[in-house]
Amino acid sequence: MKAPWPFGHFGLKAVSLGLAIALWMAVAGEETVERGLRVPLELQQFPPGLEVQGEPPTLVDIRVRGTSGALARLSPGDVIAVLDLHGARPGRRLFQLTPEQVRTPFGVDVIQVTPTSVAIEFENAAVRRVPVVPSVEGDPAPGFTVGKITSDPPEVEIIGPESAVTAATEALTESVSVAGASGAVREVVSVGVLNPSLRVKNSRTAAVEVQIVPGPRERTLREQPVHLRSMATSVSGRAVPPIVTVHIRGSREGVGRITPADVVAFVDLGGLGPGDYTLPVRVDAPGAAGVVGIDPPTVQVSIVNEKH
Q1: What phi, psi does 146 have (nearest 5°)?
Q2: In the prediction, which pLDDT does 7 show?
Q3: What mean pLDDT is predicted for residues 150-160?
Q4: How many Cβ atoms from other residues are within 10 Å of residue 251's Cβ?
Q5: Which domains occur in the chain, in start order?
Q6: What is the Cα–Cα distance from 171 to 190, expressed in whole angstroms?
């Protein structure tokens, strides 16, 4: 068998050697520097059946060393501190953080980690069903009030540390607005709990339905004078009959606070000249009540030129 000739493919070998020497010189010529970084702390091997009480740290400070080029090429996610929770038990536990627990790209070395230890408190996990309490905001249309409020599902399961689950009494929804509503309002909204250590296990939305019903109390205001609005300055007018009866409806408390002076009956004469007109009576009433009837609903209005 013929022995290989050591100078075979000499050209390719020379080029490879040249590239290797150039690369070495480029790397060797770079300055070694240090840099401080704040990097995410990743919890791994989380023990089943346990929950963290409170908020564990999510970031740690490290100091790295490498060539200026290697550090300049670092991007978010290239460096991560990893904490192995395997074997954790209920109670307050202290975990050491060392440079060896930080993942870095080739050519980047970790020389310091701060803090050097992390305390985490664990509790047994618990699950419990709690009622969903819908949140409603705004006022319905005048004369209407909020009736029955339902949620589908009516209950949800929450999960978290045992002490927090035991203390929880309800899950809340996003606010459903009933502002100006005169009929039922139905909306699908998110469900959650106020304690950040708890979370909803399955259903994270609920269909909330708010019944809007007529106010339970009606009131009759008699002999309300009819005011003439938007009348031209060069004319005068009168309404027949000059008074009307106004029927209002609303909540017991809201209607009870209203005085006859709060309810103003009027006809709009805007753009009308001298003559006789049959005009509808309108009523301004406080937001706590809605007008459900005016008797009579129209009046005769005579407009005449004023004498100078």
Answers
A1: -75, 130
A2: 52
A3: 95
A4: 19
A5: 29-115 (2.170.120), 125-214 (2.170.120.40), 217-305 (2.170.120.30)
A6: 10
Q: Which segments of 178-281 are extended strands (E)?
A: 185-192, 199-200, 205-214, 217-229, 235-240, 243-250, 264-268, 275-280
Q: How confident is the model over 191-200, as pLDDT tens digits? A: 999 998 899 9
Q: Could you tell me if 296 and 244 are in contact, meaning their C-beta atoms sit under 8 angstroms apart?
A: yes
Contacts of 262 (CB under 8 A, 6+ apart): 285, 286
Q: In terms of DSSP bridges, do strands 117-137 and 155-161 run parallel, antiparallel, or are they unpaired? A: antiparallel
C-alpha closest to that of 271 among 229, 299, 239, 305? 229
What's the pLDDT tens digit per position in 23-62?
Answer: 555 555 568 899 999 999 999 988 889 988 888 889 999 9
Q: What is the pTM of this model?
A: 0.60
Q: Which two tokens stand for residue 137?
A: 């905001």
CA atoms within 13 A on the CB side of 111: 10
Cβ atoms of residues 76 and 146 within 8 Å: no
Length of the chain: 308
What is d(CA 75, CA 18) in angstroms, rounded to the nearest whole number? 31
Question: In the numeric block, which tokens belong to residue 26?
Answer: 């480029």
Q: Which of 138, 190, 195 is nearest to 162 (CA)?
A: 195
Q: Which of 171, 175, 166 is nearest to 202 (CA)?
A: 171
Query: CA distances (Å), 87 to each of 46, 55, 126, in order?
Result: 9, 20, 19
